[in-house]
Amino acid sequence: MNLAGRCLCRSLTFSVSGDIVSTGHCHCESCRRATSSPVTTFFCVAAGDVAFKGGTLRHYASSPGVRRGFCGNCGSPMSYESEKRPGIVDLYVASLDDAAGVEITQHGFWNERVSWLHCQDDLPKREG
């Protein structure tokens, strides 16, 4: 699957050459605060299968063993990496130019979800 995306200002782009490892909606407080959104939707790929081009991908260590990538120009969230899953990069589905082929398979950190957002689907809902 060939996927491509970009940041808000269009200076930082990425392309994915390999297969998607996993997908999911994340409801954790950390992702909510990093994106100012009630839920964040990721697709995960092997680190060697994603290439960033153009602008500068900067990183912020949001918690021990976690770093979040963002556009150095406009601040758009671009990636998430955890030492718990070495060699895997999470990218934001909403940053894709065309996400039509990305099927979301689960909810993560269901126990941390906001009370006012109601998700009514049949996807598995993992705690933590």
Order of helices and strands: EEEHEEEEEEE
Computed over alpha carbons, the radius of gyration is 14 Å
Level-1 CATH class name: Mainly Beta
User: How many domain units?
Assistant: 1
Question: Could you please say which CATH topology applies here?
Answer: Metal Binding Protein, Guanine Nucleotide Exchange Factor, Chain A
* Biggest sheet layout: 7 strands, mixed
| CATH architectural label | Beta Complex
Sum up the overall morphology in one term. globular
Q: Give the number of helices.
A: 1
Question: Helix content range of the residues, please?
Answer: under 10%
Q: What is the distance, rounded to the nearest whole angstrom, between the alpha carbons of the first and last residues?
A: 29 Å
Percent in strands: 35-45%
Low-confidence stretches: none
Q: Kindly name the structural category.
A: mainly beta
User: Strands across the major sheet, in which order?
Assistant: 6-7-8-9-4-3-10
Mean pLDDT: 96
Total number of β-strand segments? 10
Question: Would you write up a description of this structure?
Answer:
- This protein has a seven-stranded mixed β-sheet.
- The mean pLDDT is 96.
- The protein is mainly beta and 128 residues long.
- Helix content is 5%, strand content 42%.
- It is built from one helix and ten strands; from the N terminus they run E-E-E-H-E-E-E-E-E-E-E.
- A hairpin with a 5-residue loop joins strand 8 (77-82) and strand 9 (88-92).
- The chain has one domain: Metal Binding Protein, Guanine Nucleotide Exchange Factor, Chain A, CATH 2.170.150.70.
